[in-house]
Amino acid sequence: MSDYSAPLAPQLARLIRQDVQGMHAYAVQDSRGMVKLDAMENPHRLSPQLQAALGQRLGAVALNRYPGSQVDVLRHALAEHAGMPEGFDIMLGNGSDELISLVAMACDVPGASILAPLPGFVMYAMSAALQGLKFIGVDLTPDFELDEEAMLAAIEQHQPSIVYLAYPNNPTANLWDDAVIDRIIAAAPGLVIFDEAYQPFSSRSYMDRIAGQQHVLLMRTMSKFGLAGVRIGYMVGPKALVAQIDKVRPPYNISVLNSEAALFALEHAEVFAAQAADLRAQRAVLLERLAAMAGVKAWRSDANMVLARVRDAQKAFDGMKAHGVLVKNVSKMHPLLANCLRLTVGTADENAQMLAALQASL
């Protein structure tokens, strides 16, 4: 991992944008030797039989060739898997993060801005900053619902180029009122982008309602499907709109190994669907146990994470880490998240260890 605290020589510092030098890099916690429940990953691995089959398949990939038609095979497979409407198209990214950056790049015209509810996924604001777009954050209500009045007022005032709606939201893990969403879409003068990263665990999707929406895009990722290490994100929307954004995508941005692994996973979608079903069941157990724990408030979840408030988040985080369990302390991300921890839903055994560590650390 790079040492971001290392001083930069003066002759080099003048070459790097001042705002970049003042930024904090995206932090990845050291999880060696820990029960890793900090990044909303699917804890299930492939069976030995599927591991062997995948290894054999990847070994036959032509690594000496640039990615070609097989990436288009993946595009069509993902479009079918997602139920993409007629008249829409799909583009792939190296994870959703790249797609978020590419949208900001494509929309970088004078006066462009990005609007999103807060607290939310940090990459929306980061993509705006890196591309030189203005970012407008609109606070959620204390119960983490969309503040409709504030959202509509901000849209009217700032006329944003892009409005992001994470569905479910990260880190609050909740869905929002569809009627409020419809009014936001109607008011938005630019693009509205649904980020459905946690769709495998959600009770609803906007994919069923996107048809006919000419300024709405929908993103998903295979990370929560169970392939966080493969880095495949995809975005669907009206063909003409996707075609313009696709122009700023780097050539060969999806490796042959990643595309082949993703195709293999889609061919065994029932395995990953069963894993998601298990995690949804484990989430219900986790929420029930948290509700019975004194000094803890947990919010409902439509994702593979649970947001929980404790009396002292830093003390609880440090205590859990000392017990060998790594979660995410989000208490400093936004005032609404004061003393909140984000708990990834793991296996039954991992969740039991997490709950025991939390109880011991309160």
Protein described:
α4 (69-82) packs parallel to α11 (256-267), α5 (95-106) packs across α6 (122-131) and α7 (148-158) packs parallel to α8. The longest helix has 23 residues, at 269-291. The two termini are 32 Å apart. The protein has helices at 10-13, 18-21, 48-59, 69-82, 95-106, 122-131, 148-158, 178-187, 223-227, 239-246, 256-267, 269-291, 313-322, 348-361, and strands at 35-36, 88-93, 113-118, 134-139, 162-166, 191-195, 216-221, 233-238, 297-298, 305-309, 325-326, 328-329, 340-344. A 7-stranded mixed beta sheet has the order 2-8-7-6-5-3-4. A 4-stranded antiparallel beta sheet has the order 9-10-13-12. By secondary structure, the chain is of the alpha/beta class.
Short descriptors:
362 residues, alpha/beta, Aspartate Aminotransferase, domain 1, Aspartate Aminotransferase, domain 2, seven-stranded mixed beta sheet, four-stranded antiparallel beta sheet, 13 strands, 41% helix
CATH level 4 superfamily of the largest domain? Type I PLP-dependent aspartate aminotransferase-like (Major domain)
Structural class: alpha/beta
- The total beta strand count reads 13
One letter per element, helices H and strands E, the order comes to HHEHHEHEHEHEHEEHEHHHEEHEEEH
Number of domains: 2
In whole angstroms, the N-to-C terminal distance is 32 Å
CATH class of the largest domain: Alpha Beta
Beta-strand content bin:
15-25%
- For the CA atoms, what is the radius of gyration? 21 Å
What is the helical fraction, as a range of percent?
Answer: 40-55%
Main beta sheet: strand number and arrangement? 7 strands, mixed
- Tally of separate helices: 14
Question: Order of strands across the biggest sheet?
Answer: 2-8-7-6-5-3-4
Low-confidence stretches: none
Q: What's the rounded overall pLDDT mean?
A: 94
What's the architecture of the largest domain in CATH terms?
Answer: 3-Layer(aba) Sandwich
Could you say which overall geometry the principal axes of the C-alpha atoms support?
globular
Task: Output the CATH topology of the largest domain.
Answer: Aspartate Aminotransferase, domain 2
